[in-house]
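Recall the central idea of this unit: under ordinary conditions, the amino acid sequence of a chain determines the structure it adopts. In this exercise we apply that idea directly, starting from the sequence alone.
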Amino acid sequence: MNRGLQAWNNTFCLLCIPCCAIGTLVVNNPMLTAEGCRQRRQRLWQQLEPWADSDYLLLSDPIHLAYLANFSVDSFSLGAGFRGYLLLRKDGHTKLIHENRLPASVEQAHVDERRVVDWYDGQSPGHGPRQLAPLAEVNPRSGGLRIHDRVGDPAASAIIHAIAELRRRKDPDEIDLLRRCMRATEAGHAWARANIRPGMTELDVYCGVNTACIQAAGQAVIVYGDFAISPGPQRRGGPPTERVLEPGNMFILDFSVVIDGYRSDFTNTLVVGKPPTADQQRLMDLSLAAMAAGEKELRAGAACQSVYDALRGVFDQARVGEFFPHHAGHGLGLTHPEAPYFVRRSSETLQAGDVVTLEPGLYIPDVGGLRIEHNYRITEAGFERLSNHTIALE
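Accordingly, the structure predicted from this sequence is:
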């Protein structure tokens, strides 16, 4: 037996305790699959093979646990913000450690063994600080325990970069989950188009959109983003406030729905309570043209710089480029934003499997601010648009 496997057995011997009894969870909605997680773990080992100094990895980053094992802690729970520990062995065996006060969402994790640590039973004090409970239970002499993706570990940088690169090429189960996020987001945009009116506050709009997204998803979800009146460059977005919507305001709806850690991100801008002015419509027409120009560059192998340049070029030609101050889009998945980035100094190249956004916008004094956005899956031949909301001012 080599030293790495011996360390696995010695350090984590307590994991041999039979898993705690966990009830069956019936899930009817798309989630990451056991086979998808297995393939991602296998690709990780293949990528690490040239330098790996161990035949096991101990990981703790919530993003890594979601990506590799479908371990997700529902944010609508007292477990929000707490993580587990995932042990990956090169032969494919997986073990998961987490404390007992976590929601049912963690029961969906795809692992071979699970160790649930009894931290608090509601009848007696908890066993030490909650953040340390699982780790302390696994190895009471945890002072020297190695967590490979924790900053400070010699392997952390390589592992974090390797997983980030793997995450760019989305697997079919990831796309299915992203589609679910997007269908819920579309419901929120549809609600806004049907209901936004003068006299509402930004918070009123957020509450309505939030409810529509939750109902469409069939569960409590996180809805975050920009719900903002935009008079121009001085306010391009922001969280909802008590500001009251007035006729003619341009209202930016740029929001995401998060399900099991994955998220959508697409945008429309509405004119409140009256037809758009000619100047407001010009912002929309130019932004739609810019989006169409960017779409022509979306394909595997294309330089991200070319996507930015195509989109930005429409604004420059119309002499409004100075009013486009941000990126032209970005990658999307378990984080927001993530690689690749459509920016003016990009050195990245699109890959088949990337999920990206295109996000043109213009913010002009005395006219208003406008932003639109779609989400796309990159293919060898071009792209598949994943978002299907209506982009229009009214």
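Confidence is low (pLDDT under 50) at residues 1-27.
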